[in-house]
Amino acid sequence: MHIATSSAFKENASKALSNSGLQKALARSGPSFIARRAAAAAALPEFERLRDTARDIKNHALANLDFYLEAYETKVLASGGKVHWCADAGEARDAVLAICQAAGARTVTKGKSMIGEEIAINDHLEQHGIRPVETDLGEYIIQLRHELPSHIIAPAFHLNMEDWEAAFRKAHTDLPADRTFRERRDVLIEARTKLRSQFLVADVGITGANFLIAETGSSVIVTNEGNGDLTQTLPRVHIVLASIEKCVPTLEDATSLLRVLARSATGQDFSVYTTFSTGPRRPGDLDGPAEYHVVLIDNGRSAMLGTDFQDMLRCIRCAACMNHCPVYGAVGGHAYGWVYPGPMGAVLTPGLIGVDKAEHLPNASTFCGKCESVCPVRIPLPKLMRHWRERAFERHLTPGATRTNLALWAFLARRPALYRMATRAAALGLGWMGRKTGRFAHLPLASGWTGGRDLPAPEGDTFFARYARQQRTQQAQ
To answer: Mean pLDDT, the chain, as a whole number?
Structure first.
């Protein structure tokens, strides 16, 4: 598994803040997600009740995951499909490769799949002479640019129109010199023109799955471009890549989750295409694959069951948390260094690759709580990030200076009288030192703050002292 730069979040964030093109893209696209989600939620009176229902469905499925996965496999087999159980990314890559080689595949089309990014399936196929072609518009341009997605539902979130045009001109050598790209429609036409032939020649189609339904053995995929349908119906072989926590008990459960998914993700009532696939083509069907394979991937999920982090497995990948996160909104997705950015990535990534490789991510938060307030399945993301911080501290992964300062603070906090005396002395001393300007441009032991902004000088006494005076005044009255 290739882990790019999760351990270098601070350096990545610094570069992102000085990247004018990225900042332009974030400023243009970010607010629209927030406004659309708010409007969609307000238009549905039962939205908050649906969030509770969605949480409960996922909790029940996770508590009985072994039962529902076995039931799902039984239904897939009954419909003529095959299920491949994979413990880790390596087994999943080998399973997909074996299916493609058995089919004699030379070209594979792909519908957007974050689990595909997680196991790096494209690189693996290319190394064995099979050409993967991303068909989602955002994923397609990312593939041309040899980049990771920067957002889980809008992979090219970090790009501007000029970036799209530059990538097309480099890859599409027959593009006329006078062809211009001024709006999204221009991009769509150019991409669809190139992708149409790929859909027709592909030997295998690979899609992700938003949900797996134990009751019917169906996989569900939602898209807005129709590429998912073409990917899974035109090729002779359809492969579904899905992690084990995507399994839900019934069709009714899946539809309840779908009602909060699109509203939370893009502000739509429903995605343009919501497609249910159940097994290979049956006699009398007009289209569909001759073979249907489901590659079920654990890759660290079962280790999260029954732990403080099980709630993270409720995630339905809507990206509402990152759309509302001030940190993600400032630095974008690539700063997080791997597949899953934003608050959900700050919790999920340490669970999948180890907190030793992603120690910075749980600290990439203001803890404003906005992520939890908009999560459609009510994942307590700030609490889970605190748990990872605790694990990192216990394993001595935090910097020595941080540990020393926290130990000093803890020593004082356990001694209230000494704490009040020390904080009052610090406030009065800093207030005297900053009496002329009212702020500090540079301050020893506070360079992490003053490196990017001034530190206001304290004014007056400490909170404890003011509160004590107020209490005495009230009692005297």
So the answer is: 92
